[in-house]
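Exercise 7. Given the components listed, write out the predicted structure of the assembled complex. Treat all entries as one system.
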Amino acid sequence: MTQKKLKEVVQKVLPDVDMVIGYRQGFDPVHATPFFVTRPEQIDELIWNPLCVHNLASYIPSLTTNKKVAVIVKGCDSRAINQYLQENLINRENLVVIGIPCSGVVSVSKVLKAVDHQIIESVSCENHAVTVKTSQGEKKLSVSDVSPDKCKTCLYPTPLVYDHLVGDPITSDKEPESVYDEVRSFEEKSLEDRFQFWKTELDRCIRCYACRNACPMCICQDRCIAESRDPHWVTQKTNQTEKFMYHMIHALHLAGRCVECEECTRVCPMEIPVAKIKKKINMEMDQLFDYKAGLNAEDTPPMYTFKVDEETIEEHEL
Amino acid sequence: MAKLGYLPKEKLTDFLENLKKKYRIYVPCQDGDAVLFQPFDGEKPLCLDRPATVSPKSVIFPQTDILFSFDYRKSSEDPKQVSIELTENLDFPETVIFGSRPCDAKGFLIYDRPYTQTDMPDIYYKGRREKTTIITLACNYPSPGCFCTSVGGDPADKEGSDILMTDVGTGYFFEAVTAKGEEIVEDAVFEDGSSYQEKAQAAHKAVADLVKKPFDSTEGLPEKLLSLFENDAFWEAEAAKCISCGACTYLCPTCYCFNITDEQAGSKGERIRSWDACMFYHFTLEASGHNPRPLKQQRLKNRVGHKFSYYPKKYEGAIACCGCGRCIRSCPVSVDISEIVAHAQEYKDEPSK
Amino acid sequence: MNQVNNPYLPELATVKKIIDETPNIKSYQVVLNDPEKMKNFVFEPGQVGQLSLFGVGESTFVINSPPTRMDYLQFSVMKAGEVTAALHELAEGDPVGVRAPLGNWFPYEEMKGKKILFVGGGIGLAPLRTLILFILDNRDDYDDITIIYGSRTPPDLCYKEDLEDWEKRSDVNLILTVDAEYPDWEKRIGFVPTVLSEVAPSPKNTVAITCGPPIMIKFVLEGLAQLQFKDEQIITTLEKRMKCGIGICGRCNIGDMYVCKDGPVFSLAQLKQLPSEI
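Answer.
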């Protein structure tokens, strides 16, 4: 039903823009893929279902300079748009935001694990569940069982910025404090255990920079410090030190900017949960500055300003 | 007659332990949720039921390779006089890649032409290649996105392997392809495999019929792609969703581009070769600031062009893509190179509206 | 063949002399440390080398001294990026590495008996220099020589000593120009492509060789076409970001041609067959 409404909205919007960015079916039943609609006859291929995981907002900065673009966003994706507006990275007049309230998407990795990596013959989505058919039979999976971590603590199921809303707004039933529950429980482990965890996980990293390029906020990806010779902070070696260095720099550059869309974890071909690092830094930013990225267009990211006396930090008593 | 052997599944570890006495062995293992080729240690369980996340190319072409190290030496008589000592390390151990797929093995054939069939062969690659034996496992089912039969391959292709293994239920049917392979199948742990040959061949044929064919043939494809070179609209549409990372390149069995950088600490340092990707913006960026391929559609066009047009042109039609489908599976946005090729094949010039 | 078994291992060499050509271009006369290797070093005019600064990196330069004068190998370096900036900090006596010769060379055999027209701008004179000197050292094999060379300002002219030499010679027609008026400059004023059209050399039995900034090459090629030069008569050398120098790292390609191996010398006829991505 939402899919039908979506097509109607796109039909209305398309004549006024150069393209509408949405989703269509991908190369196999469990993958959706970004779809750039430029002609009315393409609209019918648009889909909307829990497979639509990609953060399409990432495409906007490079396009709105000289093109008029409409983009379909979920709640988490819309935070990226607000963050772009805070940082002056996009031309709002050239952007039409089509927001869709979302009750959760699936993680393809988790679905594949749930069916033991059997070849998936078909996927049908209905009522917060995906039914996956393989040669071993059918398996019904509730979306919340196979969703990425972000959906479990989602506070913004309805887009925070939009020009059109497709469907009724959804209110979150999650506790705001629960957003960083996982960070806190991970921190209960000893320092050695935590270090070992990251050493093992990051050892697989192949520095393909999918995480960086998929991140909506990494707009300097073509001139990244990970590959730069001037300044020269990171070498091209693939030992643990270099991989740690790259990931720490990447996460620190996102402090106060990461909108927790978890694209970085989703796109990692080596299945490294890199979003956890950014989530930890976000928790610190929240505690220090009472700030979460991308909630509205008027905020200023804390790392963009400097105040001698920060309102939220008790530094010293004079 | 080729050496045929049968190895019951419960004897697999014994076989590998024995092989380990003579070779350094790389096997596909589960690492987190990924499957990677790692040194066989007898403890980590093997994962053979699906192709590894990354191809085994890093065994012969490591992601970081130290070409040589250098040392600036000051003369004790005259400190202003500096000389340099260079040290290469060309010692490569005997190695076995166990459990690669036919597409992975074909990847090395793609490397072989530019890297070894030249008047200036790459001695690092050549040295490792000559010391490596490849034991390939025939696929018993296609993987999502794979299309080997459209690019001259097959789920039981022997080309490029020293041994082809087939899972025949209770064990593995080993077929030696080369002299190196025959030596291994002579191990006492093997039973005579001739009775399993027919079963294996039937299985091979059945799987080949299941592999999808996104395009009919690569006949005329090099020229067709060249004819589309100036068609910016075509490439803009195909590359629209690409995010210009290096995942496809780094996972690909046939991608062989690299970078050379110097690293120095104090008076010592190294010149290292590391994987690079033509999909990155900086790949062709010149010191003057000029970039022949500043747009991602130009880079995607070059990658597809290299595999299906430029390489075949240089090497008598050989396609530099083995159809493994890794790039499609692991792409953050599911860019599908087989779909792009199919679109190119079907493309007909339409009169502009 | 000078190449050692390992195509990536440079020959150790020493900078014997550094010449300040222009405010941002220096020439380095380099000698291989191993006297046998230096004595037996063979290369053709137009071939390039990778000059190594260990710890910084490598950069590609044409060997702009000719094979007929083998006291040293000369490379000219314009300060542009990391390696070239570091090279500019070198002093005479400093160690470097050389991987050479790489690439193809000017078809000087086919050029015998013909008139040669050189059209260069700025540091583009470097690859032309090796061929000019080679031809002057084999003067009788070639017909008339015309050199049209210009730069932004007089201080930016490269190889000032050579230019003086060539000006004096009666068997070379040297036409110098700078882009605009400049104090104490009494010779021609005008962009190189404009001067080319003014001089209007005849294409008859002539080979034209051009090298310079991309924008200059673009207009020079148009100018030569207008003068009725055929594509086969026009030769140029290309530049690209290079790393391996042996045609396998994948980055300097234009279509299926690798500038480091199948080039950098190309005729316009060859270039027109390649996809246009320069």
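Discussion: Residues 1-57+93-212 of chain B form one domain. Chain B is about 30% helix and 20% strand.
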